[in-house]
Design brief:
Chain lengths: 296, 278
């Protein structure tokens, strides 16, 4: 009974990503990472704001648990921030906790790299060839809405090892936003630039290399950032398979053991790792877009 | 503004390509069957090597389409375009293009934009770079080489566009309303600069515009196009002496040529307006 309830809850969680993934294909390419970082006083100010906002959230959380708030939503069984922090501090002193994190990060790295390479490649091909586009698009439309958890049984049956099925599920989550954003970027290539370089003697390949790809880069970068976020929540679904390691497994295991504070520790760690890796993606793609920054 | 006097004429690698353009019985239509739309009616034009020709017409008359056929972007439905007896079937570096605006690669610096053509022609980095510098100096923008296009004003961007087109030593320079987006003051300066550059290089120039003053000031010949579907209805020879300056706008020859063009184009514009309303 309890297990059934839990499964349902996890299923819901894993379905949540969908709206985000769906919103992926049409981001305003100009709204991408550039304005995120401004050095100096402004930046210090925004860091202060982030700190203030998180502290306020933690304070509200603390109050809600301290008075056992029960008004439609029920906080009586929710661990207090202090208990979560204590549990977290306890965990970071164990080796196994770091193994969980390390294993998850390795899985993200492998799946995300594969999704990046393949996603950009497929997106570019679809953007430049009508036939390829017509051929591949139906698969993307049909497969994209399938939530990561729904893949679990089939992934286990299809792939030789647990590890490979987890990586497959994570990879799939990151793939679609990257493909669709790349495609969107390629479609936005201004025709006048293609014509201009053609009359400068550019070959088909040179047009691709010097016009199509750079024109698509802002949109690709946005897709990479979204893909990173999606790959984290797909990972959680994938790690339900794993009987041993991974921060998703850690969280899932805490569900099964009804260890409330560890559930929250796992959730928060996933949240922060996801945020951190998305920020890393933005930082890596930023130098490629420096011409955009100078534009404004 | 343009320091042309200091400029040493760069080596002219290929003297064979003189830039003689022949448009023979060309018509251009888009779409097929019932949806077919005739953009340019059967037209023949001969442009001598080194000539400066303006194509003048009301908006939407197909003058840009005709130029796109010379550039090789659009295939004529009938007839053919040849340059120095070689058939045009695709865009190529022998025909330098200058567009109305925003045609520089925004992710390349000004210098990289100008060096792009020579690089595509197979020149090494150093040679392409020195060509780029030569042409940036020609248009007075050598100092701005490491800027990105968006950091430059519209007029400066168009000068870079001209430098980029010339860096391939084209035999023909095709300009599609290149100064149309500039303010009046900048436009006058750009027109004088263009004439200076043209005098140095002697390339054939085909210049599309809807501005009568611009056409008369720049051209040896003004070809006036009819309202859509376009065809050449007048071939006006402009007998003003060169080098020209803006002061010539007061001479009787200028006024006469301008008035003639203006009357012709006015009649055409009215026709276009009426046909759109029926």
């Amino acid at each position: 009974m309890a297990t059934a309830l839990q499964t349902k809850e996890v299923a819901n969680q894993a379905t949540q990503p969908r709206p985000t993934a769906k919103a992926a294909p049409a981001p305003a390419p100009k709204a991408s990472p550039i304005s995120a970082l401004r050095i100096g006083r402004k930046q210090a100010g925004s860091i202060g704001m982030v700190f203030l906002s998180l502290s306020a959230g933690a304070l509200l959380w603390h109050l809600a648990t301290a008075i056992n708030l029960d008004f439609y939503i029920n906080f009586s069984n929710v661990p207090s921030p202090w208990r979560v922090l204590t549990a977290f501090v306890g965990h970071i002193q164990t080796e196994i906790f770091w193994t969980h994190i390390g294993v998850s990060m390795r899985r993200i790295l492998i799946s995300y790299t594969l999704a990046t390479v393949l996603g950009i490649f497929i997106g570019l091909i679809m953007g430049r060839s009508r036939i390829a586009r017509a051929f591949i698009m139906p698969y993307i439309e049909v497969v994209r809405p399938i939530p990561a958890v729904a893949w679990i049984p089939l992934a286990i049956l299809m792939w030789p090892t647990e590890e490979s099925s987890i990586i497959y599920i994570t990879f799939l989550g990151a793939l679609f936003p990257i493909v669709l954003n790349t495609l969107h970027g390629v479609e936005q290539t201004p025709e006048v630039l293609v014509r201009a370089v053609q009359s400068l003697g550019a070959s088909r390949w040179a047009v691709f290399r010097h016009v199509v790809i750079p024109a698509a880069l802002p949109s690709i970068a946005a897709g990479l950032a979204i893909g990173m976020g999606v790959s984290w929540f797909s990972l959680l679904a994938g790690e339900i398979i794993s009987g041993q390691y991974g921060i998703g497994y850690f969280t899932w295991d805490a569900y099964s053991l009804i260890n409330y504070q560890d559930i929250v520790v796992g959730m928060l760690v996933i949240g922060f790792l996801g945020t951190g890796s998305t920020a890393a993606v933005k930082m890596i793609t930023k130098p490629m877009l420096k011409w955009q920054k100078r534009t404004r | 503004m343009l320091d042309v006097l200091k400029f040493k004429t760069p080596r002219q690698p290929d003297e064979k390509g003189k830039g003689q353009i022949s448009v023979a019985d060309v018509s251009i239509s888009f779409g097929t069957g019932a949806n077919a739309h005739l953009a340019v009616e059967t037209t023949s034009i001969d442009i001598a090597a080194g000539e400066f020709v303006c194509i003048l017409g009301p908006s939407g008359c197909g003058k840009s389409t005709l130029m796109n056929a010379i550039a090789g972007y659009v295939a004529p439905s009938t007839g053919e375009v040849t340059i120095d007896d070689k058939k045009v079937d695709r865009p190529g570096p022998d025909r330098g293009m200058v567009f109305q605006q925003y045609s520089l690669l925004p992710w390349k610096t000004v210098y990289e934009n100008v060096a792009f053509g020579p690089k595509m022609a197979g020149h090494g980095r150093i040679e392409a770079g020195s060509t780029a510098n030569t042409f940036l100096e020609l248009v007075g923008l050598k100092k701005f080489g490491d800027r990105y296009p968006a950091e430059l004003s519209g007029g400066m961007q168009q000068r870079v566009g001209i430098a980029r087109a010339l860096a391939n030593y084209p035999s023909v320079l095709l300009m599609d309303e290149p100064f149309g987006a500039l303010d009046a003051q900048t436009r006058l300066m750009m027109q004088e600069s263009l004439l200076d550059i043209w005098r140095k290089f002697g390339t054939t120039v085909v210049f599309v515009t809807h501005d009568v003053d611009e056409a008369v000031f720049l051209a040896d010949r003004v070809l006036i196009m009819s309202a859509a579907p376009g065809r050449i209805i007048e071939d006006v020879k402009i007998d003003l002496p060169r080098p020209r300056s803006t002061d010539m706008a007061a001479t009787p020859e200028y006024i006469k040529a301008r008035q003639f063009c203006l009357d012709t184009i006015k009649a055409e514009s009215r026709k276009a307006f009426e046909s759109q309303n029926t």
